[in-house]
Structures are given as C-alpha cells and as structure tokens.
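[Discussion] Sanity-checking designs against the backbone

I'm trying to build intuition for which residues belong where. Below is a structure token string of 328 positions. I'd appreciate it if someone posts a full sequence so I can compare it with mine line by line.
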C-alpha cells in the first residue's frame, strides 16, 4: 500500500468509491439523495472539494489501483482558528478494504495538516456506518454536532391551546433583537461551553432582524399571553452537486429557541408542529436540522420529535506544542 498526493487522474476511481459508499449509507439512511449512487454525480462532489482553496488530498494505492482517498482543506477564522475540514464527500475506501484504511489515510493527511499549522480537525462521518465511525473515534476524534433529517409524512396533530403561532412582522423587531442572543448565551453554559463573543451580539441582532423581511426564510413566533416566548426559522434547503446530505424537496430548520422562563410549556413543540405542517403544505417531503451533541436540551428534543441522525461532525484538537516538543 502506498500513500501519495491525490491528483485529478484519480477522480473517476474516487467517484466510484464514493458512489459505493453512498449506496451503503442509503441502505442505512434512505432519506439521502439517490443521485449520488451515480459515480458521475459523485465525481462532481469530489471535484468541488479538490478544487477548494488550500485543499490537500491523499490517495491510497494498492497494485496501481486507487483503494481509498481523503480530501480536506485548511481554513482560518476567529472561532476555530487555523483548522481543517474533511467534508462528507471527502473520503471513501474500497469495499474490499478494512476501515483501518481510514486511520492510515488520516495518519498521512494529519501529518501534512500539522506541518501546515492546522491543529483543529473536523470531519463529517455518516451516522449509519458504524465501522467507519469507530475508526474515526479511535483516532481521538469526538462528537461535536449532529446532522439529522425528519420525514414529513409523519403527522403532527398535537394541540397547544395556550400558545399562538404566527409569522414575525416589523412590529416585532425590538423583541426579536432581544431574543437574538438566547441561543448564544445558552450554548456558552455547561456542558456545551461554546464561546459567545460579546462583540458578536450586535451582528446576531442585525441578522435576526433582517429575517423579518427575508423572502427566502420564514420566522415563526410563539406567543404566550401575548408575549413572544420562542421562535423557529425555516428556509428551503437547496440540493447541490456537492451536498450529499440534503435530499430533494427538503426544508431546513435553521435555528430555534425558547426563552428560559417558558421552557417546559410546549413552546418549541408547538412551533415545530406548525412549521412542519406548513412546510408539508408547501410540498416539502423532508426537514433537516443540526445541533450540538453536548446541548442536552437540543439532543433530547430533536430526537424525541422524529429527527434521525444522518451524519456526525467529529472534532480532534491537536496540541500545537508538537511543533517543537518532539522528544528528540
């Protein structure tokens, strides 16, 4: 087995590997789009990743044949600093190979990432492929985010007589700005501990206020005794050539929250039922959403309300002192 730099000449073979992997993924999660069982569509997804700025790819070659690949790219931002993404289409191995090959590919890939100053590594792994998931967990990765889908054929006919649901309007702007940081503040608490930077509060408020008149999104409000106590935002989730996770006819539940004093009253459930029923009437067949796995309330709520995990975002943080503390 040889591990060498991924090149364009491997795209066709890599596309076949990805198509076979996606076929297996769909046997576990049939909600996923069937179009990526085609190598032609898989090739487009891989090309997008390989052509990203600062991308690095590793090819596993056995007897002159590609039996595995891994492609990721380096990014820099305030929250994750210098970090690497391996997206959902960024890896696949031949059916004849053990999932140990994922570990071997990552060993070569991670070496190059560290040499390029990237110490925070993120990977999107199919939820239904337990051997592959175990391989990543045995590389020191940990769960961070859950990506899930709900089939809208499941009825939602619960009644919440004390809670009214309506679309936000311009008269709600002041209250919406007040609610804009509810999630940020909640995520900063134990056990999530996701930093909420004080300088971002105004950006959150502006963003939420703009949703009122955004024609591509619907901001639903929940009212209890004429007071806004929660919200959820839905927008169309456009399928694309590189997105294997989003099926056709899918709406995205982008964000949702309930004020702390009103939790336990059914606010989020009333919002969800209303939003999903409206989406179903509009012709959508699926709804996608995602949440931090360490957010206990979110993990319980979305799973209880029919959202099925289709992928996990895993993270590994490498001690940057390895650049000089090599033991030599």
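Best answer:
Here's mine. Compare freely.
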């Amino acid at each position: 087995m040889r591990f060498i730099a991924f090149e364009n000449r491997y795209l066709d073979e890599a596309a076949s590997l990805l198509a076979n992997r996606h076929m297996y993924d769909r046997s576990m999660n049939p909600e996923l789009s069937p179009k990526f069982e085609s190598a032609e569509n898989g090739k487009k997804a891989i090309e997008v990743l390989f052509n990203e700025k600062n991308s690095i790819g590793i090819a596993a070659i056995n007897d002159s044949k590609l039996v595995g690949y891994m492609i990721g790219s380096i990014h820099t931002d305030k929250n994750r600093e210098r970090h690497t993404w391996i997206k959902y289409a960024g890896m696949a191995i031949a059916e004849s190979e053990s999932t140990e090959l994922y570990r071997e590919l990552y060993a070569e890939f991670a070496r190059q990432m560290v040499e390029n100053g990237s110490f925070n590594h993120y990977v999107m792994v199919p939820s239904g492929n337990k051997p592959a998931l175990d391989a990543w967990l045995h590389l020191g990765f940990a769960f961070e985010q859950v990506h899930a889908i709900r089939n809208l054929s499941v009825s939602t006919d619960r009644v919440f007589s004390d809670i009214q649901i309506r679309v936000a309007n311009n008269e709600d702007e002041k209250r919406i700005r007040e609610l804009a940081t509810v999630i940020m503040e909640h995520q900063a608490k134990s056990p999530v501990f996701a930093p909420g930077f004080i300088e971002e509060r105004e950006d959150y408020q502006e963003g939420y206020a703009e949703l009122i008149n955004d024609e591509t999104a619907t901001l639903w409000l929940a009212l209890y005794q004429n007071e806004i106590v929660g919200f959820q935002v839905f927008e169309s989730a456009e399928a694309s050539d590189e997105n294997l996770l989003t099926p056709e006819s899918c709406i995205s539940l982008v964000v949702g929250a309930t004020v702390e004093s009103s939790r336990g009253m059914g606010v989020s459930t009333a919002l969800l039922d209303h939003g999903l029923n409206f989406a179903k009437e509009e012709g959508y067949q699926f709804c996608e959403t995602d949440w931090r796995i360490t957010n206990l309330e979110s993990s319980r709520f979305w799973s209880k309300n029919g959202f099925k995990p289709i992928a996990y975002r895993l993270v590994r943080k490498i001690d940057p002192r390895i650049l000089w503390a090599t033991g030599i």
